[in-house]
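User: I'm new to structure prediction. If I give you an amino acid sequence, what do you actually give back? Let's try with this one:
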Amino acid sequence: MICAVIDPNVLVSALLSRNNNTATVQVMQKILNKEIMPLYNEIILQEYKAVLSRKKFAFDTNWVDTLLNFIIQSGILTLRKKTNIILPDIGDLPFYEVFCA
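Assistant: Good question. You get back a string of structure tokens that encode the predicted 3D arrangement of the chain. For your 101 residues, that looks like this:
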């Protein structure tokens, strides 16, 4: 089994894709098949919810909640390990700190 921090853009791209052979769809399939175990924390879950709930994507809110619940049930809640790293996008820091934990 592989543990990974999943960027919200991977989820969006997989959900929008019409091609089952794309890398993002394959990652999503592996998450759903429990071959990849997502690492997450509350900040990451909030980011997933915010991104997946954007009106421009028009994802069904019940489906978003189901996906988030699946991540909670099958993933690993991980505390952040504070770092002093400076990233080009400071919004990526919670993902990096969970990865480093």
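You can read the tokens as a compact description of the fold. Here is one thing that stands out. Residues 8 and 47 are 7 Å apart (CA to CA).
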